[in-house]
Every structure is written in C-alpha cells, then in structure tokens.
Amino acid sequence: MTHKPIRKAVFPVAGLGTRFLPATKAIPKEMLPVVDRPLIQYAVDEAREAGIEQMIFVTGRGKSAIEDHFDIAFELERTMAERGKSLAVLEPTRLGPGNCAYVRQQEPMGLGHAIWCARDIVGDEPFAIFLPDEFMHGSPGCMAQMVKAYNEVGGNLISVLEVPRDKVSSYGVIDPGERAGALTEVKGLVEKPSVADAPSNLIISGRYILQPEVMRTLENQEKGAGGEIQLTDAMARMIGNQAFHAVTFDGNRYDCGSKVGYIEANLAVALEREDMADEVRSIARAMLE
Ligand code: UTP
Q1: What is residue 128's predicted lDDT score, i.e. its pLDDT?
Q2: Dihedral of the CA atoms 148, 98, 215, 184 (nearest 10)?
Q3: Is residue 272 assigned to a domain?
Q4: Is the beta carbon of 110 within 6 A of some atom in ligand 1?
Q5: In a mutational test of the pocket of ligand 1, which residue from 44, 104, 111, 254 has the highest number of ligand atoms less than 8 Å from its CB?
Q6: Residue 68 CB neighbours (<10 A)
C-alpha cells in the first residue's frame, strides 16, 4: 500500500524560551547557534534531507530574525561578492516563496495550539512537525528515518528515546505496545506524568508525522498540563482510530531548550568538525586538567 507523501513540515517557533533568558529576550531561541548554524537551520536541513518541500513556521512576536535568516540578504551578498568571498555558506539559508510560509500564533497557548494555527496551510494531507530546540544529530537524519518507517506503516509516527525514569515528568511519555526493530506500537500517551504514573521511560522527542485529522482534534482540545493546549493530549485521542507508532531514533539527541543540553550539542558538533576538532579537544582537555 502506498501512503500519501510527506511534503510539508511545521516548525512551531512561537514559544517564549524562558529557560534561556536573558539570551532569548530579543533573539528567538531557535536562532541560537550550535557552532555556526542556528538551531532552526539544522531542523530545516533535516526536513529537506527527508524530501520535505514546504516549511511552515508558526512564529510570534519578536521572531522576525527567523524570517530574515531564510530570506535573501541583499547588502550582505553584494558586499561579499564584491570582495570575492564565496556565497556557498549562505546557500542553505535560502527558502524561496514556494518553499516557505509564515503564520503567527498570537498568544503562546501551547504547542497544540501552535500546530493548529497552521491548519489552513497544511490542508488535507499528512505533515511533519519539528521542534527545533530538540537537536537530532545523526545520519541519516531523524526525519529521514521516520519517513522511511512511514512509507512502511503509514498513519501517525513520533520519535522517541529512553530517559532515566526520574526524568519522565518533563516530557510526553508513551505507553508502548509491541516492538519490531526501531518501531514500537503506541497504545497511549501522557504529557508530563508523575514518575509513579508514567507508563514507560520512552519520551516523545520533538519529531512527528501526523495525519491531518489531528487539526480537527486540536480544534476542540481542552487545556492540559501547564494550562496549555497540548499536542500530546490531542494525539492521545486519535489512538485507536488511526495507526500510531513510535520510532527510536538511531542517533543522538540534544535538548537545546536546556542550557546543559545546548553546551553538550556545541561540544559534540565541534568535536566532529575537521576545521576545529583538534583545537577544541586540546582546549577541553586543558580545562579539565
Ligand atoms: P517549550 O516547552 O520548549 O517552551 O516549547 P518554550 O516557550 O519554547 O521554552 P521555555 O520552556 O519557556 O524555555 C516546545 C516547542 O513548542 C513551541 C516552542 O517554540 C518550542 O519549539 N511553542 C510552545 C509554540 O510555538 N507555542 C507555544 O505556545 C508553546
């Protein structure tokens, strides 16, 4: 059976990023760089690698740097060209009008509400969601792995990873069913459960492939944990009506919404970069001694 292709991705970037203040007072969290690329650029590159053509950003006040980042920077490019500098480094930052759309979430009412704000642009087709502060580092990328799984099983998919049991209360957690390789059937989902009530230690990790029906479910979704409209709650209501699987990502995930995760991501990428790995390794070694 063939499944409708995943052509569109939604990037909810309207959150306030309070855990990163004061850095995120005037700059969106998604523009924080890991080495020399902003988080949002990694997420867009991951989407492109998975064959996704249209990027839909759900933005809010103070997020215009994201639009500028994916636009043409005329003065910069002309000056660089005049000075004989290569523009190749800017190539991935170009998203033409056919490849991107911006929609505004006027109040940060939660991730579920942010996704719902994109309903008209998503239309009646399955789509991907990327939380750009979850930095998924691997080859092939996380979404490419998920699209491969989607082509086999269809329906809805979320990426998951294992965390120590005492950490589950900060995340969406799955109630796992049967496992086959990287695929796990999802029997239930809970957002931010207490450690005692958590059905497993498998947490949702920032990548989703969802059927368009989720938009109708979100339409009448009540507020959940933290007084926000939770995507997890809406997905939980779809289980039973539609296929739902979790994909365990073969790669590393860094939680760049948290300070320690962000430092870890920078170190991990720097230590893989030919142009700086040796230097960074010796600096780190000297500091630790
Ligand atoms: P987070 O839970 O990380 O919240 O949102 P946040 O506001 O970005 O950061 P903190 O916790 O205050 O530091 C997860 C994702 O959902 C988006 C965020 O932009 C992030 O990508 N989001 C969240 C929205 O787009 N709108 C919302 O109302 C809430």
Answers
A1: 98
A2: 10
A3: no
A4: yes
A5: 111
A6: 11
CA–centroid distance, 74 to ligand 1, in Å, is 31
User: Does some domain include residue 287?
Assistant: no
Q: What is the CATH number of the domain that holds 51?
A: 3.90.550.10
Mean pLDDT of the chain: 94
> What residue numbers bound the domain in which 18 lies?
8-257
Q: How far is the CA of 77 from the centre of ligand 1 (A)?
A: 32
List, for residues 41-89, the tens digit of each pLDDT value.
Answer: 999 999 999 999 999 999 998 889 999 999 999 999 999 999 999 999 9
Cα–Cα dist 151/139, whole Å: 18
Written in H, E and C, the secondary structure of 150-190 is HHHHCCEEEEEEECCHHHHHHCEEEEEEEEECCEEEEEEEE
Q: Among all chains, which residue has been given the structure tokens 């700059």?
A: 27
Distance between Cα 287 and ligand 1 center (Å): 34
Number of domains in the chain: 1
Which protein residue's CA is at the shortest distance from atom 16 of ligand 1?
111
The reply to whether ligand 1 has any atom less than 6 angstroms from the CB of 105 is yes
DSSP letter at 123 equals -
| Domain presence at residue 253 | yes
CB 205 within 8 A of CB 199: no
Residue 159 lies in a domain: yes
Query: What's the pLDDT score for residue 212?
Result: 96
Task: Specify the ligand 1 atom closest to the Cα of 19.
Answer: 13
Q: Give me ligand 1 centre to Cα 247, in Å.
A: 22
For the full predicted model, state whether its pTM sits above 0.70.
yes
